[in-house]
Design goal:
Arc Repressor Mutant, subunit A, 48% helix, 349 residues, 9% strand, 5-stranded parallel sheet, alpha/beta, 16 helices
Length: 349
Protein backbone atom coordinates (compact mmCIF):
# COMPACT_ATOMS: atom_id res chain seq x y z
CA UNK A 1 0.00 0.00 0.00
CA UNK A 2 1.34 3.41 -0.95
CA UNK A 3 0.88 6.54 1.15
CA UNK A 4 -2.43 8.43 1.00
CA UNK A 5 -2.76 11.80 -0.67
CA UNK A 6 -1.83 14.26 2.09
CA UNK A 7 -2.87 17.89 2.04
CA UNK A 8 -5.30 20.48 3.34
CA UNK A 9 -5.11 22.81 0.33
CA UNK A 10 -7.95 23.30 -2.13
CA UNK A 11 -5.82 21.93 -4.97
CA UNK A 12 -5.12 18.66 -3.13
CA UNK A 13 -8.79 18.35 -2.13
CA UNK A 14 -9.73 18.56 -5.82
CA UNK A 15 -7.11 15.97 -6.73
CA UNK A 16 -8.52 13.57 -4.11
CA UNK A 17 -12.01 14.03 -5.56
CA UNK A 18 -10.75 13.51 -9.11
CA UNK A 19 -8.97 10.31 -8.11
CA UNK A 20 -12.21 8.99 -6.55
CA UNK A 21 -14.16 9.80 -9.71
CA UNK A 22 -11.80 8.36 -12.33
CA UNK A 23 -10.09 5.42 -10.60
CA UNK A 24 -12.77 2.94 -11.74
CA UNK A 25 -12.61 4.00 -15.40
CA UNK A 26 -9.15 2.74 -16.34
CA UNK A 27 -8.83 5.62 -18.80
CA UNK A 28 -5.29 6.60 -19.75
CA UNK A 29 -4.06 9.30 -17.39
CA UNK A 30 -1.22 11.84 -17.36
CA UNK A 31 -0.03 13.30 -14.06
CA UNK A 32 1.83 16.60 -14.48
CA UNK A 33 4.01 18.37 -11.94
CA UNK A 34 7.54 19.26 -10.92
CA UNK A 35 9.96 16.62 -9.67
CA UNK A 36 9.25 15.60 -6.10
CA UNK A 37 5.62 16.77 -5.86
CA UNK A 38 4.28 13.23 -5.39
CA UNK A 39 3.13 12.15 -8.85
CA UNK A 40 3.79 8.50 -8.05
CA UNK A 41 1.66 8.82 -4.89
CA UNK A 42 -1.25 9.99 -7.06
CA UNK A 43 -0.72 7.04 -9.42
CA UNK A 44 -0.66 4.58 -6.52
CA UNK A 45 -3.90 6.02 -5.14
CA UNK A 46 -5.57 5.67 -8.55
CA UNK A 47 -4.47 2.03 -8.59
CA UNK A 48 -5.57 1.34 -5.01
CA UNK A 49 -9.06 2.72 -5.62
CA UNK A 50 -9.51 0.92 -8.94
CA UNK A 51 -10.87 -2.55 -9.74
CA UNK A 52 -7.27 -3.46 -10.67
CA UNK A 53 -6.17 -3.31 -7.03
CA UNK A 54 -4.44 -6.60 -6.24
CA UNK A 55 -3.12 -6.93 -9.79
CA UNK A 56 0.45 -5.82 -10.62
CA UNK A 57 1.52 -2.20 -10.22
CA UNK A 58 4.64 -1.80 -12.37
CA UNK A 59 6.73 1.36 -12.69
CA UNK A 60 9.44 2.27 -15.17
CA UNK A 61 11.44 5.51 -15.36
CA UNK A 62 11.69 6.52 -19.01
CA UNK A 63 14.46 9.03 -18.28
CA UNK A 64 16.75 6.57 -16.52
CA UNK A 65 17.36 4.19 -19.45
CA UNK A 66 18.81 4.68 -22.95
CA UNK A 67 16.42 4.08 -25.85
CA UNK A 68 17.49 0.51 -26.69
CA UNK A 69 17.35 -0.70 -23.10
CA UNK A 70 14.04 1.07 -22.44
CA UNK A 71 12.48 -0.66 -25.46
CA UNK A 72 13.54 -4.10 -24.24
CA UNK A 73 12.35 -3.27 -20.70
CA UNK A 74 8.93 -2.22 -21.96
CA UNK A 75 8.26 -4.94 -24.52
CA UNK A 76 10.57 -7.79 -23.51
CA UNK A 77 12.59 -9.90 -25.89
CA UNK A 78 13.13 -13.39 -27.22
CA UNK A 79 16.30 -15.35 -26.72
CA UNK A 80 18.91 -14.30 -29.28
CA UNK A 81 17.08 -11.04 -30.13
CA UNK A 82 20.36 -9.17 -29.65
CA UNK A 83 23.84 -9.75 -28.31
CA UNK A 84 23.56 -10.74 -24.67
CA UNK A 85 19.94 -11.90 -24.88
CA UNK A 86 20.67 -15.39 -23.62
CA UNK A 87 17.13 -16.14 -22.49
CA UNK A 88 13.59 -14.93 -23.09
CA UNK A 89 12.44 -12.07 -20.88
CA UNK A 90 9.00 -10.55 -20.34
CA UNK A 91 8.67 -6.79 -20.57
CA UNK A 92 6.84 -4.36 -18.30
CA UNK A 93 3.67 -4.50 -20.41
CA UNK A 94 3.44 -8.24 -19.87
CA UNK A 95 4.33 -7.97 -16.19
CA UNK A 96 1.62 -5.32 -15.71
CA UNK A 97 -1.08 -7.31 -17.54
CA UNK A 98 -4.39 -6.81 -15.76
CA UNK A 99 -2.91 -4.06 -13.61
CA UNK A 100 -1.24 -0.67 -13.94
CA UNK A 101 1.91 0.44 -15.75
CA UNK A 102 3.30 3.79 -14.57
CA UNK A 103 5.46 5.42 -17.24
CA UNK A 104 7.41 7.91 -15.16
CA UNK A 105 9.08 10.86 -16.92
CA UNK A 106 7.40 10.00 -20.22
CA UNK A 107 8.47 13.38 -21.61
CA UNK A 108 12.00 11.96 -21.93
CA UNK A 109 10.92 9.05 -24.14
CA UNK A 110 12.34 9.14 -27.69
CA UNK A 111 10.08 9.75 -30.67
CA UNK A 112 10.80 6.23 -31.98
CA UNK A 113 9.55 4.64 -28.76
CA UNK A 114 6.62 7.05 -28.62
CA UNK A 115 5.44 5.63 -31.96
CA UNK A 116 5.65 2.07 -30.61
CA UNK A 117 3.83 3.05 -27.41
CA UNK A 118 1.08 4.66 -29.47
CA UNK A 119 0.62 1.39 -31.37
CA UNK A 120 0.24 -0.54 -28.10
CA UNK A 121 -2.33 1.94 -26.78
CA UNK A 122 -4.31 1.79 -30.02
CA UNK A 123 -4.21 -1.96 -30.64
CA UNK A 124 -3.67 -3.44 -27.18
CA UNK A 125 -0.89 -5.64 -28.50
CA UNK A 126 2.83 -5.58 -29.25
CA UNK A 127 5.65 -7.85 -30.41
CA UNK A 128 8.61 -8.49 -28.07
CA UNK A 129 12.02 -7.81 -29.61
CA UNK A 130 13.05 -10.68 -31.87
CA UNK A 131 9.51 -12.10 -32.06
CA UNK A 132 7.10 -12.20 -34.98
CA UNK A 133 4.15 -13.01 -32.74
CA UNK A 134 2.06 -10.27 -31.16
CA UNK A 135 1.22 -10.37 -27.47
CA UNK A 136 -2.07 -8.95 -26.20
CA UNK A 137 -2.03 -6.77 -23.10
CA UNK A 138 -4.73 -5.36 -20.84
CA UNK A 139 -2.84 -2.65 -19.00
CA UNK A 140 -3.97 0.65 -17.54
CA UNK A 141 -1.29 3.11 -18.57
CA UNK A 142 -0.66 6.05 -16.24
CA UNK A 143 2.04 8.49 -17.33
CA UNK A 144 3.84 11.09 -15.24
CA UNK A 145 6.01 13.97 -16.37
CA UNK A 146 7.60 17.24 -15.28
CA UNK A 147 7.60 18.42 -18.90
CA UNK A 148 5.21 20.84 -20.56
CA UNK A 149 4.13 18.31 -23.18
CA UNK A 150 2.28 20.87 -25.28
CA UNK A 151 5.51 22.86 -25.57
CA UNK A 152 7.35 19.62 -26.38
CA UNK A 153 4.82 19.02 -29.18
CA UNK A 154 5.54 22.51 -30.57
CA UNK A 155 9.29 21.78 -30.34
CA UNK A 156 8.87 18.47 -32.18
CA UNK A 157 9.90 16.41 -29.13
CA UNK A 158 6.57 14.74 -28.38
CA UNK A 159 3.96 13.22 -30.66
CA UNK A 160 0.65 15.05 -30.68
CA UNK A 161 -1.33 11.88 -31.39
CA UNK A 162 0.28 10.12 -28.42
CA UNK A 163 -0.44 13.13 -26.21
CA UNK A 164 -4.17 12.97 -26.94
CA UNK A 165 -4.22 9.19 -26.64
CA UNK A 166 -2.62 9.38 -23.18
CA UNK A 167 -4.20 12.56 -21.90
CA UNK A 168 -7.79 11.37 -21.42
CA UNK A 169 -7.54 12.21 -17.72
CA UNK A 170 -5.20 15.07 -16.75
CA UNK A 171 -4.07 15.60 -13.16
CA UNK A 172 -1.81 18.53 -12.28
CA UNK A 173 -0.02 18.49 -8.93
CA UNK A 174 1.06 22.02 -7.89
CA UNK A 175 4.53 22.57 -6.39
CA UNK A 176 4.72 22.63 -2.60
CA UNK A 177 5.57 26.35 -2.55
CA UNK A 178 2.10 27.08 -3.96
CA UNK A 179 0.32 25.16 -1.19
CA UNK A 180 2.00 26.02 2.13
CA UNK A 181 -1.10 24.88 4.02
CA UNK A 182 -0.07 21.31 3.12
CA UNK A 183 3.25 21.61 4.99
CA UNK A 184 1.83 20.88 8.44
CA UNK A 185 -0.22 17.77 7.55
CA UNK A 186 2.76 16.44 5.58
CA UNK A 187 5.01 16.95 8.62
CA UNK A 188 2.57 15.08 10.86
CA UNK A 189 2.16 12.20 8.42
CA UNK A 190 5.85 11.61 7.76
CA UNK A 191 6.87 12.12 11.40
CA UNK A 192 4.40 9.40 12.39
CA UNK A 193 5.62 7.17 9.58
CA UNK A 194 9.28 7.55 10.56
CA UNK A 195 8.43 6.94 14.24
CA UNK A 196 6.70 3.69 13.23
CA UNK A 197 9.70 2.62 11.16
CA UNK A 198 11.93 3.19 14.21
CA UNK A 199 9.86 1.00 16.48
CA UNK A 200 7.33 3.55 17.66
CA UNK A 201 9.77 5.89 19.39
CA UNK A 202 8.56 9.32 20.45
CA UNK A 203 9.57 12.00 17.95
CA UNK A 204 9.45 15.65 18.88
CA UNK A 205 7.39 17.65 16.42
CA UNK A 206 9.02 20.82 15.04
CA UNK A 207 8.00 23.93 16.98
CA UNK A 208 5.39 26.38 15.70
CA UNK A 209 8.21 28.81 14.87
CA UNK A 210 10.07 26.23 12.79
CA UNK A 211 6.87 25.20 10.98
CA UNK A 212 6.18 28.87 10.21
CA UNK A 213 9.65 29.16 8.65
CA UNK A 214 9.08 25.95 6.70
CA UNK A 215 5.95 27.49 5.20
CA UNK A 216 8.02 30.44 3.99
CA UNK A 217 10.68 28.29 2.32
CA UNK A 218 10.60 27.84 -1.47
CA UNK A 219 11.00 24.00 -1.49
CA UNK A 220 12.63 23.57 -4.92
CA UNK A 221 12.71 19.80 -4.29
CA UNK A 222 9.04 19.79 -3.21
CA UNK A 223 7.73 16.98 -0.97
CA UNK A 224 10.83 14.85 -1.57
CA UNK A 225 12.99 17.63 -0.15
CA UNK A 226 10.62 18.03 2.82
CA UNK A 227 10.98 14.31 3.57
CA UNK A 228 14.76 14.61 3.56
CA UNK A 229 14.65 17.64 5.86
CA UNK A 230 12.38 15.82 8.32
CA UNK A 231 14.75 12.86 8.39
CA UNK A 232 17.65 15.18 9.17
CA UNK A 233 15.63 16.78 11.94
CA UNK A 234 14.82 13.34 13.29
CA UNK A 235 18.47 12.31 13.38
CA UNK A 236 20.09 15.58 14.43
CA UNK A 237 17.27 17.17 16.44
CA UNK A 238 18.44 20.68 15.49
CA UNK A 239 15.25 21.80 13.76
CA UNK A 240 15.87 25.55 13.97
CA UNK A 241 19.41 25.27 12.66
CA UNK A 242 18.46 22.91 9.83
CA UNK A 243 15.72 25.17 8.49
CA UNK A 244 17.98 28.22 8.80
CA UNK A 245 20.60 26.38 6.75
CA UNK A 246 17.98 25.81 4.04
CA UNK A 247 17.45 29.54 3.66
CA UNK A 248 21.17 30.25 3.84
CA UNK A 249 21.90 27.67 1.15
CA UNK A 250 19.22 28.87 -1.27
CA UNK A 251 19.94 30.01 -4.81
CA UNK A 252 19.00 33.61 -4.02
CA UNK A 253 21.85 35.80 -2.82
CA UNK A 254 21.98 38.97 -0.78
CA UNK A 255 20.96 41.95 -2.95
CA UNK A 256 24.17 43.89 -2.27
CA UNK A 257 26.31 40.89 -3.25
CA UNK A 258 24.27 40.23 -6.38
CA UNK A 259 24.62 43.88 -7.35
CA UNK A 260 28.37 43.80 -6.75
CA UNK A 261 28.76 40.72 -8.94
CA UNK A 262 26.61 42.07 -11.79
CA UNK A 263 27.90 44.38 -14.51
CA UNK A 264 26.37 47.81 -14.80
CA UNK A 265 23.58 48.24 -17.33
CA UNK A 266 25.68 50.19 -19.89
CA UNK A 267 28.52 47.63 -19.66
CA UNK A 268 26.09 44.77 -20.15
CA UNK A 269 24.45 46.41 -23.19
CA UNK A 270 27.81 47.19 -24.79
CA UNK A 271 28.94 43.59 -24.33
CA UNK A 272 25.78 42.31 -26.02
CA UNK A 273 26.26 44.69 -28.98
CA UNK A 274 29.85 43.60 -29.54
CA UNK A 275 30.77 41.39 -32.48
CA UNK A 276 34.41 40.30 -32.81
CA UNK A 277 35.36 42.70 -30.03
CA UNK A 278 33.84 45.79 -31.66
CA UNK A 279 30.50 47.44 -31.10
CA UNK A 280 28.51 46.91 -34.28
CA UNK A 281 25.26 48.74 -33.59
CA UNK A 282 24.00 49.92 -36.95
CA UNK A 283 26.49 47.78 -38.83
CA UNK A 284 25.67 45.00 -41.26
CA UNK A 285 26.47 42.28 -38.74
CA UNK A 286 24.21 43.66 -36.02
CA UNK A 287 20.67 42.43 -35.40
CA UNK A 288 18.32 42.29 -32.44
CA UNK A 289 18.07 38.52 -32.96
CA UNK A 290 21.85 38.12 -32.68
CA UNK A 291 22.01 40.31 -29.56
CA UNK A 292 19.13 38.36 -28.01
CA UNK A 293 20.93 35.05 -28.65
CA UNK A 294 24.10 36.36 -27.00
CA UNK A 295 22.04 37.51 -24.01
CA UNK A 296 20.31 34.14 -23.68
CA UNK A 297 23.62 32.27 -24.05
CA UNK A 298 25.19 34.46 -21.38
CA UNK A 299 22.35 33.86 -18.90
CA UNK A 300 22.25 30.13 -19.65
CA UNK A 301 26.00 29.83 -19.15
CA UNK A 302 25.86 31.59 -15.77
CA UNK A 303 22.92 29.48 -14.54
CA UNK A 304 24.35 26.16 -15.73
CA UNK A 305 27.79 27.00 -14.29
CA UNK A 306 26.20 27.94 -10.96
CA UNK A 307 24.18 24.72 -10.70
CA UNK A 308 27.18 22.62 -11.73
CA UNK A 309 29.25 24.29 -9.02
CA UNK A 310 26.56 23.56 -6.41
CA UNK A 311 26.47 19.89 -7.46
CA UNK A 312 30.29 19.52 -7.48
CA UNK A 313 30.14 19.39 -11.30
CA UNK A 314 27.91 16.29 -11.31
CA UNK A 315 26.10 16.52 -14.63
CA UNK A 316 23.37 14.01 -13.77
CA UNK A 317 22.35 15.94 -10.65
CA UNK A 318 22.56 19.24 -12.53
CA UNK A 319 20.31 18.00 -15.34
CA UNK A 320 17.66 16.98 -12.81
CA UNK A 321 17.81 20.37 -11.04
CA UNK A 322 17.66 22.26 -14.35
CA UNK A 323 14.86 19.95 -15.59
CA UNK A 324 16.57 19.21 -18.91
CA UNK A 325 17.68 15.88 -20.29
CA UNK A 326 21.23 14.71 -19.66
CA UNK A 327 21.94 14.91 -23.41
CA UNK A 328 20.65 18.50 -23.61
CA UNK A 329 22.90 19.52 -20.72
CA UNK A 330 25.96 17.94 -22.38
CA UNK A 331 25.17 19.82 -25.60
CA UNK A 332 24.82 23.10 -23.68
CA UNK A 333 28.12 22.54 -21.85
CA UNK A 334 29.88 22.04 -25.19
CA UNK A 335 28.05 24.86 -26.97
CA UNK A 336 28.67 27.40 -24.23
CA UNK A 337 32.25 26.22 -23.57
CA UNK A 338 31.63 25.54 -19.88
CA UNK A 339 34.62 24.00 -18.13
CA UNK A 340 35.19 23.20 -14.44
CA UNK A 341 37.79 25.29 -12.61
CA UNK A 342 41.25 23.76 -12.39
CA UNK A 343 41.78 21.72 -9.25
CA UNK A 344 38.14 20.60 -8.96
CA UNK A 345 38.75 17.19 -10.48
CA UNK A 346 36.63 17.94 -13.54
CA UNK A 347 33.15 16.76 -14.42
CA UNK A 348 31.53 13.73 -12.81
CA UNK A 349 28.69 11.63 -14.16
Amino acid sequence: MGPPIIGASESMRKIKELVEHVAHTGFNTVIFGESGVGKEVIAQNLYQKSPRMGKPFVKINCAALPEGLLESELFGYERGAFTGAEQKRRGKFQLAHGGVLLLDEIGDMSLVLQAKLLHVLQSGEFAPLGSEKDVKTDTWVIAATNHDLKQDISDGKFREDLYYRLNIIKIYVPPLRERPEDIEPLIDFYMNEYASQLGGIQIERPSAGVIHKMKQYHWPGNVRELQNVLKRMLVLGECEQIIDELFAGGISRQPDQAQADSPSQPDMIHSLLEINGKEEMGGQNFSLKAAKKRAVDRVEKEIISYVLTKTDWNRSKASRILKVSYKTLLNKITELNITPPSGTGGFSQ
